[in-house]
Amino acid sequence: MVVELNNIKNEILNDISFNLKENEITSIIGKNNSGKTLILDMIYCLNFDYSGNITINEKKLDKESKLNVRNDIFYLMNDLDKLLFNINIREDIKYVVDKLDEKKLEELFKLFDLDITILDKSYLEISNTEKKKVLLVIAFLSNKKILLLDNPTLYLDYKSKQSLIKLLKRNKKEKIILIVSMDTNFLLNVSNRVIVINDKKIVLDDNKYKVFENKSLLDKICVKQPEICNFKNKVKVEKNINLSNSDNINDLLKDVYRNAK
Length: 261
Hints:
The chain is of the alpha/beta class and 261 residues long.
């Protein structure tokens, strides 16, 4: 499966083109209101106010095809209450998941430290943290081929973020995954590729290390550099040591020690 955006233009975006494929987690970063979430809306057929075209497996997205398209997509939106609206959480899950695997449901609830009793509660009775975890559980229960995740780590604690990272990496071979987030520490861990939007255009589309080590660009788009990349830059400046690429701070510390001998 391949998703392609070709020459997308509107008031916010100008000549946006890129493709998404399986076995690759892609992230989009940029300033607030730069069109990141708008791109997710377009892929999910919530917004058609643009020129250019978006295709999934060479089939153009339009208003007539949107229901069929959405059968293959799970979209985690910022507005959590738009996705939870049934009498209880179990019904919310069944609304998206055709064949509910109870064993997998229990495993995912355990992974995100969710109490199984919330299945009988309304979304009005649970916290935003629980809502976000429930929606992530639904995402991985649904077996949708495309995951669009807008701020997936918002409301999550460290342990839940680590669980999410594991799930995304485990499932990326079978899915197209596109993430919008300002949580660059999370994105460094999970992404293969990062797209940078500034002044309506894509200014960089490269592997995560090339993007996140470009501090001047990150400063320009008001995005915080991941702590590990910041550490690497400091070691290079202060110790004249070029560390290898890694998502793990312990590996970098070992690298510093080896070079300091």
